[in-house]
């Protein structure tokens, strides 16, 4: 079977890049499929995650980011030219490869892939809440341009819903947002390759959280919560792993609250698993999640997790008070921040009760087994076989 993945570049350390890499490697190495990765702008950038030598890589050399060196209307003209160039090049590559399956994500050119005229079945992976995808992309726009941008997104989603052969969501919640017939909607969660052989002893006085330092991850909530925790448990510390545009603001917040000695922000770790093993709980306060893979990675190390029940992901991963703690979701915080008391209370509860940490951590590791690659990837193989048999 020939499978083609289409993406901008595997150059950033992010959840989508890691998941795509793991799947391509699995299909190439375990299933012995012919797997191709078509990127638009990989260039000389090294892959952010190891990709199997069996995966064939083609870069189209379409540098969309160059448009942002210019102001409108020149930027719009450049974008139009690059869009045309991308479509021309990808049509040529697909004609040469003649794949059975083409997979794109809602993050990148899924509507273009769905419009391709070829025999391949088109699968679109939704890695984020549909209603949030592409809205907060970090690009500053005037209000009229932002409205136009959102209109174009809706048009793109309509193309996907009309022309794709399958939309694969990570959660039931996101799947319900897609307006297409149920026969073309599938839910397949993200996976982890295997369980770590070690388990955290849960004795280190440290909580951990990780992810891109962006507004939607809402790390400022965890930092504000930690001020309440620190006043009662000054011996405990919080470590945040990640990079992003909110880093400067978060560092300023830490300094303003006087938490520099107990709250630290670290770059992405090459060995996050070991950081989990050296911690006693994992925290998540996101405004929304595509899934929450980092939750499963933490749980696989035996960490009890505390998370807001945001749309979507945590509520489909954590079983409240069985293998973690699921807190009521809120999108906006009131001026007095009273919503943070739920998280502060949950953290306090785990700090003072080591047997509870052990029990939740034990069940968390057991729960994470349902996301092992061999259990999840069989769902992808079944989907491929079903589509190609049509």
SSE topology sketch:
Elements: E1 2-7, H1 15-29, E2 34-39, E3 56-59, H2 74-97, E4 101-105, H3 110-115, E5 121-126, H4 143-163, E6 166-169, H5 172-177, E7 185-187, E8 206-210, H6 219-232, E9 237-241, H7 247-256, E10 263-266, H8 272-277, E11 281-284, H9 293-300, E12 305-308, H10 314-317, E13 324-327, H11 340-352, H12 354-368, H13 373-389
Parallel strand pairs: 1-2, 1-4, 2-3, 4-5, 5-6, 6-7, 8-9, 8-11, 9-10, 11-12, 12-13
Can you describe what's shown?
The longest helix is centred in the first third of the chain and has 24 residues, at 74-97. The protein is α/β, with parallel strands linked by helices. The chain has a seven-stranded parallel β-sheet with strand order 3-2-1-4-5-6-7, with helices on both faces. Strands 10-9-8-11-12-13 form a six-stranded parallel β-sheet, sandwiched between helices. It is 41% helix and 15% strand. The protein has helices at residues 15-29, 74-97, 110-115, 143-163, 172-177, 219-232, 247-256, 272-277, 293-300, 314-317, 340-352, 354-368, 373-389; strands spanning 2-7, 34-39, 56-59, 101-105, 121-126, 166-169, 185-187, 206-210, 237-241, 263-266, 281-284, 305-308, 324-327. Helix 6 (219-232) links the parallel strand 8 and strand 9 (237-241).
